[in-house]
Amino acid sequence: MRSSRSGLLVIELVIAVGVFALCAAICVGLFVQADRVSRDSAALGQAVTVSQNTAERYKTVQGDLEQLAQDLDGTCTEDGALVLWFDSDWQPVQAEGQYQMTITPQPADGYRKADLSVQQTGSDETLFALQLAAEVQP
To answer: What parts of the sequence cross the membrane (predicted)?
Structure first.
């Protein structure tokens, strides 16, 4: 009689450990997913802040991308676009970084317009996009 009780106890313990292991695996997966969502949200928030600051600078220089490139240490491409790079902490860098901001000029009458987009390097997905416009003072 005694051995059947101990066998039943071992089976109950194995089942309890299995249930706890399953719950722990589910919780670890949820924590990993929450961490990824948190990092994506922080990157989006920083992209919005940097884009808004750049938009204000764009208005200040009346849409002159060459002046903006000098002010922000960016690079103008052959097609007239301005490229700015940022590291993982959203600090400006000269060479290729974690994030890329591109300001592409658009044709307009009486205004200088441009499209601003922020992407993570190596990804085709745009984190944030904004249309810019600056009135040209005579």
So the answer is: 7-32
Both tokens of 33, joined, read 């997913």
Give helix then strand counts, H and E, for the chain.
Answer: 2, 6
Whether this model's pTM surpasses 0.85 = no
Residue with tokens 């089976």: 11
Q: How many residues are listed for the chain in this entry?
A: 138
| Structure tokens, 28 | 């670890």
- Give the C-alpha separation, 52 to 54, whole Å: 5
Indicate the number of domains in the chain: 1
Backbone angles phi, psi at 70, to 5 degrees: -65, -45
pLDDT tens, position by position, 99-125: 999 999 988 777 889 999 999 988 888
39 alpha-carbon distance from chain centroid: 8
